[in-house]
DNA sequence: TCTGTATGTCAAA
DNA sequence: TTGACCTACAGAC
Protein backbone atom coordinates (compact mmCIF):
# COMPACT_ATOMS: atom_id res chain seq x y z
CA UNK A 1 0.00 0.00 0.00
CA UNK A 2 2.21 2.79 -1.14
CA UNK A 3 1.28 5.76 0.98
CA UNK A 4 3.95 7.15 3.26
CA UNK A 5 3.68 4.42 5.87
CA UNK A 6 4.72 1.78 3.30
CA UNK A 7 7.75 3.77 2.27
CA UNK A 8 8.87 4.15 5.86
CA UNK A 9 8.51 0.41 6.33
CA UNK A 10 10.64 -0.09 3.25
CA UNK A 11 13.33 2.27 4.52
CA UNK A 12 13.41 0.44 7.83
CA UNK A 13 13.54 -2.90 6.04
CA UNK A 14 16.37 -1.90 3.72
CA UNK A 15 18.40 -0.51 6.56
CA UNK A 16 17.92 -3.59 8.69
CA UNK A 17 18.72 -6.19 6.07
CA UNK A 18 21.12 -4.43 3.67
CA UNK A 19 22.94 -1.60 5.48
CA UNK A 20 26.68 -2.12 5.57
CA UNK A 21 26.50 -4.78 2.88
CA UNK A 22 27.95 -4.83 -0.59
CA UNK A 23 25.16 -5.16 -3.12
CA UNK A 24 24.95 -6.51 -6.61
CA UNK A 25 22.63 -4.15 -8.47
CA UNK A 26 21.10 -5.11 -11.78
CA UNK A 27 18.11 -4.40 -13.97
CA UNK A 28 16.74 -7.71 -15.26
CA UNK A 29 14.15 -5.80 -17.26
CA UNK A 30 16.86 -3.59 -18.78
CA UNK A 31 15.16 -0.23 -18.30
CA UNK A 32 17.48 0.74 -15.45
CA UNK A 33 20.66 -0.86 -16.77
CA UNK A 34 22.76 2.34 -16.84
CA UNK A 35 21.74 3.37 -13.32
CA UNK A 36 22.30 -0.11 -11.95
CA UNK A 37 25.84 -0.08 -13.33
CA UNK A 38 26.61 3.06 -11.27
CA UNK A 39 25.63 1.31 -8.06
CA UNK A 40 26.67 -2.28 -8.71
CA UNK A 41 29.19 -3.52 -6.15
CA UNK A 42 28.77 -0.55 -3.81
CA UNK A 43 27.93 -0.83 -0.13
CA UNK A 44 24.59 0.41 1.13
CA UNK A 45 25.05 3.08 3.78
CA UNK A 46 21.39 3.19 4.73
CA UNK A 47 17.86 3.97 3.61
CA UNK A 48 15.58 6.88 4.40
CA UNK A 49 12.04 7.90 3.55
CA UNK A 50 10.56 11.34 3.15
CA UNK A 51 6.87 11.13 2.40
CA UNK A 52 6.49 8.73 -0.52
CA UNK A 53 10.11 9.09 -1.61
CA UNK A 54 12.60 6.37 -0.77
CA UNK A 55 16.34 7.08 -0.81
CA UNK A 56 18.95 4.34 -0.72
CA UNK A 57 22.36 5.79 0.06
CA UNK A 58 25.47 4.09 -1.30
CA UNK A 59 29.05 4.62 -0.19
CA UNK A 60 30.11 6.17 -3.50
CA UNK A 61 28.03 9.22 -2.54
CA UNK A 62 25.16 8.37 -4.84
CA UNK A 63 21.52 7.85 -3.95
CA UNK A 64 18.97 5.60 -5.54
CA UNK A 65 15.71 7.54 -5.49
CA UNK A 66 12.58 5.44 -5.78
CA UNK A 67 8.94 6.45 -5.96
CA UNK A 68 6.53 3.53 -6.13
CA UNK A 69 3.66 5.48 -7.68
CA UNK A 70 0.45 3.52 -8.00
CA UNK A 71 1.84 0.15 -8.92
CA UNK A 72 5.31 -0.10 -7.57
CA UNK A 73 6.19 -2.90 -5.16
CA UNK A 74 9.19 -4.63 -3.65
CA UNK A 75 9.50 -8.33 -3.09
CA UNK A 76 12.10 -9.67 -0.68
CA UNK A 77 13.63 -13.05 -0.11
CA UNK A 78 16.60 -14.51 1.66
CA UNK A 79 17.85 -16.26 4.74
CA UNK A 80 16.59 -15.88 8.31
CA UNK A 81 17.64 -12.21 8.47
CA UNK A 82 14.88 -11.52 5.93
CA UNK A 83 12.09 -13.24 7.79
CA UNK A 84 8.94 -11.25 8.19
CA UNK A 85 9.51 -8.86 5.30
CA UNK A 86 8.35 -10.55 2.20
CA UNK A 87 6.62 -7.89 0.22
CA UNK A 88 5.87 -4.19 0.52
CA UNK A 89 4.09 -1.99 -1.97
CA UNK A 90 1.05 -2.17 -4.21
CA UNK A 91 -1.35 -5.03 -3.64
CA UNK A 92 -1.28 -8.02 -5.95
CA UNK A 93 -5.03 -8.19 -5.67
CA UNK A 94 -7.71 -5.96 -4.26
CA UNK A 95 -7.30 -5.53 -0.54
CA UNK A 96 -4.39 -5.42 1.78
CA UNK A 97 -1.36 -7.55 1.34
CA UNK A 98 0.54 -9.22 4.10
CA UNK A 99 2.31 -12.23 2.70
CA UNK A 100 3.00 -14.99 5.14
CA UNK A 101 6.52 -16.11 5.75
CA UNK A 102 6.79 -19.58 4.33
CA UNK A 103 9.73 -20.45 6.54
CA UNK A 104 11.12 -22.81 3.97
CA UNK A 105 14.58 -24.12 3.25
CA UNK A 106 17.88 -22.23 3.48
CA UNK A 107 18.56 -19.33 1.15
CA UNK A 108 20.11 -20.46 -2.10
CA UNK A 109 20.30 -17.18 -4.00
CA UNK A 110 17.57 -15.22 -5.75
CA UNK A 111 15.11 -16.99 -8.04
CA UNK A 112 15.07 -16.19 -11.77
CA UNK A 113 13.40 -12.79 -12.12
CA UNK A 114 9.71 -13.05 -12.78
CA UNK A 115 7.92 -10.34 -14.75
CA UNK A 116 9.25 -6.83 -15.28
CA UNK A 117 11.88 -6.42 -12.57
CA UNK A 118 13.28 -2.90 -12.84
CA UNK A 119 15.94 -3.33 -10.19
CA UNK A 120 17.29 -6.33 -8.36
CA UNK A 121 19.49 -5.83 -5.28
CA UNK A 122 21.37 -8.86 -4.00
CA UNK A 123 23.51 -9.30 -0.88
CA UNK A 124 25.06 -12.41 0.57
CA UNK A 125 21.92 -12.93 2.64
CA UNK A 126 19.03 -12.03 0.40
CA UNK A 127 17.57 -10.05 -2.43
CA UNK A 128 14.99 -7.36 -3.25
CA UNK A 129 13.12 -6.96 -6.54
CA UNK A 130 11.45 -3.70 -7.56
CA UNK A 131 8.63 -3.65 -10.10
CA UNK A 132 6.57 -0.84 -11.58
CA UNK A 133 7.96 2.28 -9.90
CA UNK A 134 7.07 5.74 -11.16
CA UNK A 135 10.62 6.88 -10.42
CA UNK A 136 13.86 4.97 -10.14
CA UNK A 137 16.99 7.00 -10.69
CA UNK A 138 20.51 7.60 -9.44
CA UNK A 139 21.00 11.08 -8.00
CA UNK A 140 23.70 13.08 -6.26
CA UNK A 141 23.47 14.48 -2.71
CA UNK A 142 22.79 17.91 -4.18
CA UNK A 143 19.91 16.59 -6.23
CA UNK A 144 18.53 14.86 -3.17
CA UNK A 145 18.63 18.11 -1.19
CA UNK A 146 16.72 19.87 -3.95
CA UNK A 147 14.01 17.21 -3.88
CA UNK A 148 13.70 17.33 -0.08
CA UNK A 149 13.53 21.11 -0.09
CA UNK A 150 10.34 21.03 -2.12
CA UNK A 151 8.50 18.58 0.10
CA UNK A 152 6.32 19.49 3.04
CA UNK A 153 6.92 18.03 6.49
CA UNK A 154 6.63 14.27 6.83
CA UNK A 155 4.38 13.30 9.76
CA UNK A 156 6.33 10.07 10.22
CA UNK A 157 9.57 11.87 10.99
CA UNK A 158 9.94 12.60 14.72
CA UNK A 159 11.71 15.88 13.99
CA UNK A 160 8.97 17.09 11.63
CA UNK A 161 7.68 20.56 12.45
CA UNK A 162 3.88 20.83 12.82
CA UNK A 163 4.16 24.62 12.49
CA UNK A 164 5.53 24.15 9.00
CA UNK A 165 2.38 22.23 8.11
CA UNK A 166 0.23 24.96 9.63
CA UNK A 167 2.04 27.62 7.60
CA UNK A 168 1.78 25.70 4.35
CA UNK A 169 -1.85 24.70 4.76
CA UNK A 170 -3.19 27.97 6.11
CA UNK A 171 -1.51 29.98 3.36
CA UNK A 172 -3.54 28.41 0.56
CA UNK A 173 -7.08 28.89 -0.61
CA UNK A 174 -7.40 25.46 -2.24
CA UNK A 175 -9.78 22.99 -0.63
CA UNK A 176 -8.22 21.08 2.24
CA UNK A 177 -9.13 17.84 0.43
CA UNK A 178 -6.62 18.82 -2.24
CA UNK A 179 -4.03 20.25 0.11
CA UNK A 180 -3.67 17.09 2.16
CA UNK A 181 -2.69 15.29 -1.05
CA UNK A 182 -0.25 18.02 -2.05
CA UNK A 183 3.23 16.75 -1.23
CA UNK A 184 4.52 20.31 -0.89
CA UNK A 185 2.09 20.81 1.98
CA UNK A 186 2.28 17.42 3.66
CA UNK A 187 4.57 14.61 2.52
CA UNK A 188 3.29 11.05 2.62
CA UNK A 189 -0.49 11.32 2.67
CA UNK A 190 -2.37 9.71 -0.22
CA UNK A 191 -5.98 9.12 -1.14
CA UNK A 192 -6.82 6.78 1.73
CA UNK A 193 -5.37 8.84 4.58
CA UNK A 194 -6.72 12.05 3.03
CA UNK A 195 -10.30 10.79 3.13
CA UNK A 196 -10.02 9.06 6.47
CA UNK A 197 -8.38 11.88 8.41
CA UNK A 198 -10.84 14.47 7.12
CA UNK A 199 -13.64 12.21 8.30
CA UNK A 200 -12.05 11.61 11.69
CA UNK A 201 -11.68 15.34 12.24
CA UNK A 202 -15.15 15.98 10.76
CA UNK A 203 -13.69 18.48 8.31
CA UNK A 204 -15.40 19.17 5.00
CA UNK A 205 -13.04 18.41 2.09
CA UNK A 206 -14.11 21.70 0.48
CA UNK A 207 -13.07 24.02 3.27
CA UNK A 208 -10.30 26.29 2.07
CA UNK A 209 -6.95 25.64 3.72
CA UNK A 210 -6.80 29.23 4.94
CA UNK A 211 -10.29 28.96 6.43
CA UNK A 212 -9.14 26.37 8.96
CA UNK A 213 -8.05 27.81 12.27
CA UNK A 214 -4.79 26.93 13.91
CA UNK A 215 -6.30 24.42 16.34
CA UNK A 216 -8.15 22.57 13.61
CA UNK A 217 -5.01 22.46 11.51
CA UNK A 218 -2.90 21.14 14.36
CA UNK A 219 -5.55 18.54 15.12
CA UNK A 220 -5.40 17.38 11.51
CA UNK A 221 -1.63 17.10 11.81
CA UNK A 222 -1.84 15.18 15.07
CA UNK A 223 -4.37 12.80 13.62
CA UNK A 224 -2.23 12.17 10.54
CA UNK A 225 0.75 11.48 12.78
CA UNK A 226 -1.21 9.03 14.89
CA UNK A 227 -2.95 7.15 12.12
CA UNK A 228 0.16 6.90 9.94
CA UNK A 229 2.29 5.69 12.84
CA UNK A 230 -0.31 2.95 13.29
CA UNK A 231 0.01 2.21 9.58
CA UNK A 232 3.76 1.72 9.90
CA UNK A 233 3.27 -0.62 12.84
CA UNK A 234 0.47 -2.64 11.25
CA UNK A 235 1.70 -2.63 7.66
CA UNK A 236 -1.76 -1.57 6.51
CA UNK A 237 -4.11 1.35 6.81
CA UNK A 238 -6.57 0.98 9.65
CA UNK A 239 -8.32 4.15 10.75
CA UNK A 240 -11.45 2.92 12.53
CA UNK A 241 -11.68 2.85 16.29
CA UNK A 242 -12.72 -0.50 17.81
CA UNK A 243 -16.03 0.95 19.03
CA UNK A 244 -16.96 1.77 15.42
CA UNK A 245 -16.51 -1.75 14.12
CA UNK A 246 -19.25 -4.40 14.01
CA UNK A 247 -16.79 -7.24 13.98
CA UNK A 248 -14.44 -7.43 16.95
CA UNK A 249 -12.17 -10.04 15.38
CA UNK A 250 -8.47 -9.56 14.78
CA UNK A 251 -6.86 -8.86 12.48
CA UNK A 252 -9.30 -6.13 11.52
CA UNK A 253 -11.20 -7.25 8.39
CA UNK A 254 -10.68 -5.04 5.33
CA UNK A 255 -14.38 -4.18 5.37
CA UNK A 256 -13.98 -2.67 8.84
CA UNK A 257 -10.71 -0.84 8.37
CA UNK A 258 -12.00 2.49 7.00
CA UNK A 259 -14.71 5.05 7.71
CA UNK A 260 -15.27 6.36 4.19
CA UNK A 261 -12.61 5.16 1.74
CA UNK A 262 -14.29 2.94 -0.88
CA UNK A 263 -17.49 2.89 1.21
CA UNK A 264 -19.71 4.89 -1.16
CA UNK A 265 -23.37 3.97 -0.77
CA UNK A 266 -22.78 2.27 2.58
CA UNK A 267 -24.05 3.80 5.82
CA UNK A 268 -21.71 6.07 7.74
CA UNK A 269 -20.38 4.23 10.79
CA UNK A 270 -21.30 7.22 12.98
CA UNK A 271 -24.54 8.67 11.63
CA UNK A 272 -25.86 6.19 9.06
CA UNK A 273 -25.88 8.65 6.16
CA UNK A 274 -24.81 7.13 2.85
CA UNK A 275 -21.13 7.70 2.18
CA UNK A 276 -20.67 9.81 -0.96
CA UNK A 277 -18.01 9.74 -3.66
CA UNK A 278 -17.02 12.30 -6.25
CA UNK A 279 -14.00 13.22 -8.33
CA UNK A 280 -11.62 15.83 -6.99
CA UNK A 281 -8.68 16.58 -9.25
CA UNK A 282 -9.04 13.23 -11.00
CA UNK A 283 -8.95 11.24 -7.75
CA UNK A 284 -11.87 9.65 -5.95
CA UNK A 285 -12.91 11.55 -2.87
CA UNK A 286 -15.06 9.77 -0.28
CA UNK A 287 -16.85 11.55 2.53
CA UNK A 288 -19.87 11.75 4.79
CA UNK A 289 -21.81 14.90 4.00
CA UNK A 290 -23.51 14.85 7.37
CA UNK A 291 -20.53 14.27 9.70
CA UNK A 292 -18.00 16.41 7.85
CA UNK A 293 -19.46 19.84 8.37
CA UNK A 294 -16.62 21.72 10.02
C1' DT B 1 -7.80 -12.10 -25.15
C1' DC B 2 -9.48 -8.00 -23.66
C1' DT B 3 -11.02 -4.55 -20.15
C1' DG B 4 -11.06 -2.29 -15.87
C1' DT B 5 -8.86 -1.02 -11.71
C1' DA B 6 -5.37 0.67 -8.17
C1' DT B 7 -3.03 3.72 -2.11
C1' DG B 8 0.54 8.54 -7.90
C1' DT B 9 2.75 12.13 -10.58
C1' DC B 10 3.89 14.83 -14.51
C1' DA B 11 3.54 17.40 -18.77
C1' DA B 12 0.77 19.19 -22.28
C1' DA B 13 -3.36 21.55 -23.70
C1' DT C 1 -8.32 19.41 -16.85
C1' DT C 2 -6.79 15.53 -19.53
C1' DG C 3 -3.89 11.91 -21.04
C1' DA C 4 0.17 9.21 -20.52
C1' DC C 5 2.82 6.19 -17.99
C1' DC C 6 4.60 2.40 -14.66
C1' DT C 7 2.56 -3.16 -13.72
C1' DA C 8 -0.26 -7.17 -12.28
C1' DC C 9 -4.35 -9.46 -11.88
C1' DA C 10 -9.46 -10.44 -11.65
C1' DG C 11 -13.28 -10.91 -14.24
C1' DA C 12 -15.74 -10.67 -18.51
C1' DC C 13 -15.95 -12.32 -23.17
TrEMBL record:
Coiled-coil blocks: none
Cofactor entry: Zn(2+)
EC identifiers of the protein: 4.2.99.18
Top EC class for this record: lyase
Pfam families per UniProt: Fapy_DNA_glyco, H2TH, zf-FPG_IleRS
Keyword terms: DNA damage, DNA repair, DNA-binding, Glycosidase, Hydrolase, Lyase, Metal-binding, Multifunctional enzyme, Zinc, Zinc-finger
Every FPG-type domain range: 259-293
TM ranges: none
Residues annotated as domain Formamidopyrimidine-DNA glycosylase catalytic: 2-89
Taxonomic superkingdom: Bacteria
Database matches in CDD domains: AcNei1_N (cd08970)
Family: Belongs to the FPG family.
Record-given protein name: DNA-(apurinic or apyrimidinic site) lyase
Organism annotation: Arthrobacter gallicola
Amino acid sequence: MPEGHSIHRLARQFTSVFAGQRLSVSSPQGRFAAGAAQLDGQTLVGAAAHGKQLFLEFDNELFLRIHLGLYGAFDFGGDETFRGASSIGAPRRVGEREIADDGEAAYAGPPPPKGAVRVRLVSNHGWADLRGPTACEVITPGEQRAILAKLGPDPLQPEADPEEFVRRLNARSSPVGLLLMNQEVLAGVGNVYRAEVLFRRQVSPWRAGKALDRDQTLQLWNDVVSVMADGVAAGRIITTLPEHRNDASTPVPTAEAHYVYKRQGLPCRICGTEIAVTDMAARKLYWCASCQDR
